[in-house]
Amino acid sequence: YCNVIIDNKEITVPEGTTILEAAKKININIPTLCYHPDLSIKANCRICSVEVKGKNKLVAACSTPIWDGAKIVTNSKLVRDMQKGVLELILANHPQDCLRCIRNGKCELQKLCEIFHISKSNLEDEVDALEVDSSSPSIVRDHRKCIKCNRCLEVCQESILSHAHRSIHYSITPAFERKLMDTLCVFCGQCSSVCPVGAIYEKDDTQKVWDAIHNKDKHVIVQIAPAVRVSIGDEFGMDAGKKVTGKLVAALRRIGFDKVFDTDFAADLTIMEESSELLYRIENGKTLPMITSCSPGWINFIEGNFEHLLKYLSTCKSPQQMFGAISKTYYPKIMNIDPSSIFTVSIMPCTAKKYEATRKEMNSSGFRDIDVVLTTREIARMIKSSCIDFEGIQEEEFDTPLGISTGAGVIFGATGGVMEAALRSVYEIATGMALNNLEFIGVRGLEGIKEASININGNTIKVAVAHGLDNAKKILEMIDKGKCDYTFIEIMCCPGGCIGGGGQPIGTTLEIKDKRIQSIYKVDEEMPIRKSHKNPAVLKLYEDFLGKPLGNLSHKLLHTNYNP
Ligand code: HC0
């Protein structure tokens, strides 16, 4: 242990504790910028410098382990001059157009400037005239705003970003300064959720939605992804993980959507198709293992890097796209509406979903499955700009029938959820017996690769769940080497699954992800129906329209194939 004094306060901390961590324990806030609790320590911005008392020496608090007998001062003149100097240097190379920036009010640099009363750099303006990269439908890179903290580079699952040039021309960029669309970027958006400023952000599609809502000829419907209901509360200062489904439904109606539906309905539909596909493959000796296909970042990854393994993917479209296809066919039929007037919006925790919706093959109904995808952050902006008191708004129910769902649908939002939902149905469909214990604990939690097995009609089916592309790669390499004995595999691109998607509120950490996961399982527990194949609205959809899972119409509308 080390006995130390920080700003005249004594504290004892275990050896190895950094100065930043020790200060936090006694509620002393040291400013940080490149530091992020879930990423490695870089110490390259130096804004967290503190003074070693009596030595006239500054050290970086984020990276320096405290030592026994240390006397640290966090607010001396030396420290304050250093902090202001760092901020002025950054500002000298940063556009000062905060009102026009997407991160206005949520920018860590802006916050620090406010704290230190810095409104303008006294240094000469050196902002580079770099072009904004808006080549992808998911993410925008505005290099001029980059403060070179390296968070994006570190969180990038595909190592798309790297260092280039030296001195004042130093930059973080894809190799050869390519545009994102010309790289193997999977558009997961993790970079955008850790960027402390507005240098990487979700492509804002909110105006398209406002235009549709204000167009009297459009019938505008919206679906809410499983993971958004336990995350959007963060945007309104509510407790992390708080379930706010009813408030979100109410807020979307206030904004002007004609109907508010649930992606969980389509998740149940996906389970019907995916379970049937799995059983068909098992019973007919077709390609196994079968791998889930609902995470678009994951699909981009396998298409870009392992095209020879595409045959292992389920042919099911994701729930987002299944919802879209149904919203342009079955829904207008039962509502007696012209399908060309329907405008379908998705609220997703994910930036890659924007890309998925633009894929050329996602229009088998004759219309685009999905017209616009908004991330959690974008819909929060729409709610705020509608002056809605989100925390105070009275909860409302989803519209029917595309708002009816089960507990199996909602757990899609956490890693392992698709697998658990599938197993609940596969077992009952294949054996005709009731499954008593619905909770497959083995596939829950944040471990990188999880395994479980289930006995179906005397055969043991081994399954696996992976999240994050490093883990996905391990699974693919096992398959490639013929060393994979799994029958069914769930893969989600983002660490933690969709609750940790790249379009989720800024400030998402591991701790917050964990709270969202717990909340999602609680929602499942409280649902009256917890198995997808018992969803009455899905059963009626088959009875009145689709026929049966894997039938001709299902194939046309709900399945797809993948491109290398
Ligand atoms: Fe997900 Fe989904 S669970 S990918 O994470 O499967 O984005 O929340 O909406 O489509 O349902 C995201 C979340 C979805 C889809 C569903 C799946």
Automatic annotation (TrEMBL):
In which family does this protein belong, per the annotation? Belongs to the complex I 75 kDa subunit family.
**A biological process (GO) annotation for this entry?**
ATP synthesis coupled electron transport
This protein's cofactor list reads: [2Fe-2S] cluster; [4Fe-4S] cluster
- Which CDD domains does UniProt cross-reference here? fer2
Q: Name one GO cellular component term.
A: membrane
Xref: InterPro entries: 2Fe-2S_ferredoxin-like_sf (IPR036010), 2Fe-2S_ferredoxin-type (IPR001041), 4Fe4S_Fe-S-bd (IPR017896), 4Fe4S_Fe_S_CS (IPR017900), Cytosolic_Fe-S_CAF (IPR050340), Fe_hydrogenase (IPR009016), Fe_hydrogenase_lsu_C (IPR004108), Fe_hydrogenase_ssu (IPR003149)
**Keywords on record:** 2Fe-2S, 4Fe-4S, Iron, Iron-sulfur, Membrane, Metal-binding, NAD, Repeat, Translocase
Span of domain 4Fe-4S His(Cys)3-ligated-type = 78-117
Which terms does the record give in the GO molecular function aspect?
A: 2 iron, 2 sulfur cluster binding; 4 iron, 4 sulfur cluster binding; ferredoxin hydrogenase activity; iron ion binding; NADH dehydrogenase (ubiquinone) activity
Origin species = Crassaminicella thermophila
Domain (4Fe-4S ferredoxin-type): give its ranges.
137-166, 177-205
Q: What is this protein called?
A: 2Fe-2S iron-sulfur cluster binding domain-containing protein
Query: Which Pfam families is this protein grouped with?
Result: Fe_hyd_lg_C, Fe_hyd_SSU, Fer2_4, Fer4_7, NADH-G_4Fe-4S_3
Q: Where in the cell is it found?
A: Membrane
> Taxonomic lineage per UniProt?
Bacteria, Bacillati, Bacillota, Clostridia, Eubacteriales
Question: Which superkingdom is the protein from?
Answer: Bacteria
Q: SUPFAM superfamilies, from UniProt?
A: 2Fe-2S ferredoxin-like (SSF54292), 4Fe-4S ferredoxins (SSF54862), Fe-only hydrogenase (SSF53920)
- Which residues belong to any copy of the 2Fe-2S ferredoxin-type domain? 1-78
